[in-house]
Amino acid sequence: MSKVALITHITGQDGSYLAELLLKKGYTVHGIGGNVVPHNTGNAGSNFHDKSSDLHIYTYADISTGTARDLLAIIRPDEVYNLGGAGQLSENSDSADDLFSTGEFSALKVLEAIRILGLETKTRYYHASPSALCSLVNGIAINEMVSLNIYPSWYATGISDFWTIVNYRETFGLYACSGILFNHESPRRSENFVTRKITRSLANITQGLEKCLHLGNLNALRDWGHARDYVKMQWLMLQQDNPEDFVVATGVQYTVRQFVTFAALELGIKLRFVGKGVEEKGIITAIISPVAAALKVGDVIVAVDPRYIRPAEACKVNVNPTKARRKLGWAPETSLQDMVIEMVQADLACAKKAARL
Ligand code: GDP
Q: Which of 218, 236, 268, 311 could form a disulfide with 292 if both were Cys (CB 3.0 to 4.6 A apart)?
């Protein structure tokens, strides 16, 4: 008999890739639609190409209410992937507005439902935890991490969910674990996040739909992987003999400026950055593809806008993802450059379509 999975936020970036992966593996997939994707645009809206009869989506269900129990009682899933937690939010200010739509404290509701329904030995639970919790897992600097004055409100949710999962694992013997996934992107990423903002905006600029890409801290370093690779880790985490938490990342960091440079090159634009701080600008030094033929050398297409500079954030994140490689044999398959190409080409197709309208 095929395995049954329940995915929350199935319409989001990770949920849609995970659903595709599980359907390919022969699972019956039940999904709860999410509403964290309103910032998604263009190609990201059409996440579901698979109209498989093994796929069932409940648009209006909400995992953080009593629905969790009702749904679990009917579906009796082998695996629950709770992607609706704070783990998928960014530190950027827009995200705070979404606190009530992130299934806050949902780990408790789902795990308790699993326990009450007597599904402890059947149902395995995966939880997307915010990457800011990494220091908890590595056992370092807890006091420096917990700076409640700085971190947005959803951070408290993440901490609560993380320890709830540890508690249910140790006290009730449930198979439950947290995946601490660092930045993972794709053409389905919301524009709330810097990578998609960059690829979409630069694609729009080549088609005359925008003039300039306005960003915050260009020096910020991030470890960016492809969401399609990362959902494989989510699945692998539920296939082990014993549940464990894992950090997922590539181990390689790039600056926002480098990401812009790679994306511009894919569009046939060579850029030079001049100036410092809020005065920094990205100026075109050469056009090397007909895609960008409408632009000219000397055009300023990247500028810093202080509104996007965060008052306090981790500008550099040192991640050690070797446990995933060592224990699960997982390694990212998509290079940053290949991911940039995929994102740029998807956004370019949308921009060309929009320019024709
Ligand atoms: P995060 O790592 O979850 O905060 O993911 P983001 O994609 O939102 O941000 C990644 C980095 O890009 C952070 O260091 C931001 O400060 C930086 N950044 C620079 N300009 C922007 C911008 O315009 N929007 C966003 N979202 N981030 C920006």
A: 268
